[in-house]
């Protein structure tokens, strides 16, 4: 869809009736469809907005040249009120994804003329999946769309305007095929899937034969308190900080008939994420017949960086998970391969599922079994989280004996005594870059040295300044932060009422110091940068701490090896550009092999990457040939 067309509608998105009118009017005109009877469509296109309609249609003629059903669906799903953009989790699902999921699930059905065949989308949005389902049932049966809408398809969504659009979409489908009924009987309901009871809404309900859809993806931090409360009603989201898509597996399966099938396009993070542990346990405990087509870092949704997979679940017992990783390009070209079958008993619910071929799983097991896990042997720490880095962190444009000078719209002088050196590991690749990339951070904390009768005393513990002390001793820094007080108060959506307005948003990393290896959130190859600057702080990255320079430099050799990177590529979260996550959860189980002093000296003194890699491949008992898999 042309960006100018989308922009035109987005500027009107809070006026739902005019947006619907423009989309419907354009579809009818471009496809030469005349409406005589259907009350819903006729009511939507009435009104005195001819100039706006003509402008919109002329824009389509100029920029698009056509206007078909996929254009209607795309604009219905993306032209939403501004207050819904960050909270409803809806995205446009490409038609080839919908077609595949619908056809694969409907292939399980033998008799399409049965009146009690029921297919549902329990987060149907504007009805895109139901539109495809209706088309497919029409092809496979002798039914009219009127009968299909009445007997076979069911939808639920939390927003009344999306259900209205779903009714419009399905009506247009029927009208385009010559069914100009005054009214269609729809089973499309407004309600919250988290507490909706289908048993009370459908007479003699025995369950759905099929559930399809694209569950809403809203991250835990963006959920309302009401939604968080409702999540506790479901086994898979009773604890932790689950994202909104997670309970939709349990909800869909609850309302499926025995031997029914569920087909979703959803994010692929449930395989490994901490907040999906309960979901993995739910799958494993029930031994659901689970099939996953994983797109890895390949992007499916336009203009949205989301990592997705297609999941099919048959409500029957299976000891195996079937898994296939594929690119979007290969999927489009229908180059699906044989599925790898992994026994549920081999999958670790707590640590995350590693879904791969048997020889890869064997290598991962070897790596994790050797020596001591990285997270047990060394402290792995996150960086500072001010929640306003643009205010606290700066690169001085000048300095003198007492002040750093910070250019931020105007020139501010900041007392050196309140500043600390800080580095961003996400930008760092070598030790030589540290002096160049090092910045300053305003650090309104002092070290707690009081020990006598202080049972809470911790070495290096940092205490935030009292405001009067801050104002009197560092007036320039105080004045600068005061100018930004409104932004600082609005951190964390303004929830930080129990903290001082000028302290950092989180307390993490305040007390960390020592020799360390710095490394980024994600990378395309392993970078671990050693520094002996013990007081150097960090943000946007991680650090491994240890007292011994020699030990850290040996560890650097191991972590920059092919063995470690093989492990990360097979177990971590992929990102676009062939990048992989290096979060603690993904690196902590890597086994650090035991080395004698001669072996450590060899790793430190050998300049050849190939020789070091050969040594470590042998040490970890990894066959070089398997590295390419």
UniProtKB/TrEMBL annotation:
Protein name: site-specific DNA-methyltransferase (adenine-specific)
PROSITE patterns attached to this UniProt entry: N6_MTASE (PS00092)
Boundaries of every Type II methyltransferase M.TaqI-like domain copy: 151-301
Catalysed transformations (reactions): a 2'-deoxyadenosine in DNA + S-adenosyl-L-methionine = an N(6)-methyl-2'-deoxyadenosine in DNA + S-adenosyl-L-homocysteine + H(+)
Enzyme class: transferase
GO molecular function per UniProt: nucleic acid binding; site-specific DNA-methyltransferase (adenine-specific) activity
Entry-linked PANTHER family: DNA METHYLTRANSFERASE A (PTHR33841:SF1), DNA METHYLTRANSFERASE YEEA-RELATED (PTHR33841)
Keywords of the record: Methyltransferase, S-adenosyl-L-methionine, Transferase
SUPFAM superfamilies attached to this UniProt entry: S-adenosyl-L-methionine-dependent methyltransferases
GO biological process, one term: DNA modification
Organism, scientific name: Seonamhaeicola marinus
Enzyme Commission code: 2.1.1.72
InterPro entries assigned to the protein according to its UniProt record, in alphabetical order: DNA_methylase_N6_adenine_CS, MethylTrfase_TaqI-like_dom, N4_N6_ade-DNA_methylase, SAM-dependent_MTases_sf
Signal peptide: none
Keyword S-adenosyl-L-methionine among record annotations: yes
Transmembrane segments: none
